[in-house]
Amino acid sequence: MRASGTLREFRVIGRKLPTKDEPETPLYRMRIFAPNETVAQSRFWYFLHQYKKMKRSTGQILAVNQIRDRKTSTVRNFGITIRYNSRSGTHNMYKEVRDTSMCGAVELLYQDMAGRHRARFSTIHIVDVVEVPAGIKATKKYNPMLDDEAPAAVKRSVVKQFLNSKIKFPMARRLPRAPRGCPHGRGPASGGIGDRHG
Predict the structure, then answer these.
(1) Do residues 60 and 17 touch, judged by C-beta distance below 8 A?
(2) Cα dist. 103→40, 62, 179 in Å?
(3) pLDDT score for 168
(4) Per-domain residue ranges for the chain?
(5) Sign (positive or negative) of CA dihedral 134, 137, 141, 144
(6) Which residues does the chain have with pLDDT short of 50?
(7) Helix or strand or coil: residue 48?
(8) Which of 53, 33, 51, 52 is nearest to 43 (CA)?
(9) Do 8-67 and 72-163 share a fold?
(10) Fold of 8-67
(11) Which residue in 40, 75, 112, 124 is deepest, having the highest Cβ count within 10 Å?
C-alpha cells in the first residue's frame, strides 16, 4: 500500500457484528492518517485485526469522520510516536517534526522514514501525534511545587535549532541589481535611429 496523495486525518469507529450470544458488542475508535476514506477503513481493519479477533467480514464500520486542522497559519512542533517493521524486527520510535498542520507533519514523517530507514507506508503504525510546545513555553507553564511532572517539551536538536527568535538564514547567492533608469540593465536608451529601445 502506498501513500498516494495528500494525507488526511480520519476518526474511524467500528465494532464486531452482534450475534445471539453477544447482542451488544464494544465500539473501537481509531485515529488514522490516510489519503482517502477507503484506505482509512482498510487500515482500521488491519490494525484492529492485530489486537482483536476481528476482521472486515465479521465486523462493521459505524462512522468515518474527517478531522480538519483549524489553525494552519503558524508553524508548530509535533511529537510523533511510531512503531514500524524493518527487515530485522519491530521497532518503537519517537520523532519531532515542524509543520503548519498535523497531517503535513505526518506526511513529512513518512518521507523521512522512507529516506532514512527505507520503511514503507504499510509497515509504519502511528501510535500517537501530539503538539509539543517549545522549551520556553513548557517551562513557563511548569510549577515544580504544584505539578508532579514537567510538561512535554521539544527534545530533538533538529527541531531545537529553529526555536531561536534571532535565527538568520544567509543568502547563498546574491544577484547583482540593474542600474537605475536602465530598462533590463542594457544601458541607457539614446533614442537614435539604430537604437533597439527607441
Answers:
(1) yes
(2) 14, 23, 46
(3) 86
(4) 8-67, 72-163
(5) positive
(6) 198
(7) helix
(8) 33
(9) yes
(10) Ubiquitin-like (UB roll) (3.10.20)
(11) 40
Q: Is the CB of residue 113 less than 8 Å from the CB of residue 80?
A: no
Q: What's the pLDDT score for residue 187?
A: 56
Residue in the block written with cell 485515529 = 31
Q: What are phi and psi of 103, to 5 degrees?
A: -65, -35
CA distance 153 to 159: 11
**Close Cβ partners of 8 (under 8 Å, ≥ 6 residues apart):** 33, 34, 35, 36, 66, 103
Specify the fold of 72-163. Answer: Ubiquitin-like (UB roll) (3.10.20)
Cα separation of 44 and 28, whole Å?
10
State the pTM of this model.
Answer: 0.73
For residue 30, CA distances in Å to 17, 53, 110, 178 come to 18, 16, 19, 58
Where is 112: in which H helix or E strand? helix 102-117
User: CB under 8 Å, gap of 24 or more: what pairs does 147-150 form?
Assistant: none
